[in-house]
Design brief:
The protein has helices at 4-7, 9-12, 19-24, 34-46, 79-90, 109-113, 125-138, 171-178, 199-217, 275-281, and strands spanning 26-30, 50-54, 95-99, 117-120, 142-147, 151-157, 232-238, 241-247, 263-265, 288-301, 307-313, 332-341, 361-366, 369-374. With 380 residues, the protein is an alpha/beta fold. It has an eight-stranded mixed sheet with strand order 3-2-1-4-5-6-7-8, with helices on both faces. The longest helix has 19 residues, at 199-217.
Length: 380
């Protein structure tokens, strides 16, 4: 087997290149579709030593024309797991982890915090909003990419350094976002809009995104960042050829601008900890845990009075659950909680049962003010 040194011999010929920075880097790729495939392939070739691949979807036949890592025999399998296998095949010297889960609700903020850079290869506005807030809160830079038939865009974001993704949201984008939910906050059943794309445009945008990641990993006090500045967007057109870079407007009132600077680590898993125990552990027995989302606890029918317990984030529950199985009327309404204290009926419930993932960063308010506490778990 060839040595790592000989594998990267051509990299070492680049005068500014430091392979050690890449081999020690932690990079998360969110989305393993057309763009994600190309990004993962290039990161593996470059020798990025620790790679996390996130995608909750499975391989479909339509992915095969645009995704270099997928084969016909992979149809129906987890995109994240297949992409991770192929990345290991490309480069057996790197550590690759597959996370087949929802980036918004099943990955704790502490996981994002552990990364050097996050690369968003997403086709969902909601997912981009969630990723933007997750990275902003923990101060980790992230790269956003998007494509259509002959148009590609790349943008770079980091907390408190220029605009964030949410700053530049247009009224039409906000309208699209709000259409996803009913007036009660349940998820509406909308047909997913498919964007026409090709492998050509996916590979082009992925190349720029990986180049931005390499630039970030080589940036320090002595080596200024090259390429995009934070809060800038690059637009590439293939028909006709055109290339533009411009700064995004920064909204000082943007609700996403929440940066958690001081984070305490509590070496306990949410699978072994209740809210009451958490508050005791950090010396705030009379404090309040803010969940950070609307937790649906009960669906209650106003017609027949029947009820059903549902421990899920409200936005993950479809509007079809408003139909009562007892009286067959759309008369069920959600009851939710957003915070829990020691007197709450949910205070003795395990945090994992409340929808808190491993390595989540929790907000607690008590006598010592607002504190942020990161849990642990079994994250690879």
């Amino acid at each position: 087997m060839e040595s790592e040194e000989s594998r990267y011999a051509r990299h070492h010929l680049i005068d500014w290149w430091e392979q050690k920075r890449l081999s020690q880097a932690k990079v998360m790729v969110v989305g393993a579709g057309a763009i994600g495939n190309e990004v993962i392939k290039s990161l593996a070739l470059l020798g990025v030593g620790n790679l996390w691949i996130v995608d909750f979807d499975t391989v479909e036949v339509t992915n095969l024309t645009r995704s270099v890592l997928f084969r016909e025999s992979d149809i129906g399998r987890s995109k994240a797991e297949v992409a991770a296998e192929r990345a290991r095949d490309i480069n057996p010297h790197i550590n690759v982890h597959a996370l087949s889960c929802d980036l918004e609700y099943e990955i704790g903020s502490g996981v994002y915090r552990a990364m050097d850079v996050v690369i968003g290869c997403l086709d969902s506005l909601q997912a981009r909003l969630a990723l933007n807030r997750a990275c902003y809160r923990v101060g980790v830079p992230w790269i956003n990419g998007g494509i259509e038939v002959t148009v590609a865009e790349v943008s770079l974001f980091q907390a408190e350094r220029g605009a964030c993704f949410e700053c530049s949201m247009s009224p039409a984008m906000w309208e699209q976002h709000h259409e996803r939910f009913s007036c009660g906050g349940l998820r509406a059943n909308l047909n997913e809009e498919k964007q026409p794309t090709t492998a050509v445009v996916a590979s082009i945008v992925a190349g720029y995104m990986v180049n931005e990641a390499v630039a970030l990993l080589h940036t320090d006090a002595e080596h200024p960042k090259t390429g995009l500045e934070f809060g800038q967007k690059m637009i590439l057109l293939l028909k006709p050829y055109r290339f533009d870079i411009y700064g995004l407007p920064c909204d000082p009132n943007c609700l996403a601008h929440e940066c958690w600077e001081e984070i305490e680590v509590l070496p306990l898993s949410p699978a072994a900890l209740t809210t009451a125990q958490l508050l005791e552990q950090i010396g705030e027995p009379q404090g309040t845990l803010e969940l950070g989302f609307d937790l649906l606890t009960v669906m209650r029918c106003v017609e027949c009075g029947s009820e059903a317990s549902v421990f899920l984030p409200l936005e993950r529950v479809g509007v079809e659950t408003s139909e009562c199985p007892q009286c067959a009327k759309r008369s069920r309404y959600p009851e939710t909680v957003t915070w829990i204290d020691h007197e709450s009926e949910w205070a003795q419930t395990l945090l994992s049962q409340l929808g808190i993932p491993e390595y989540q960063i929790l907000c607690v308010k008590g006598e010592r003010g607002t504190r942020y506490v990161q849990l642990t778990g079994t994250f690879a």
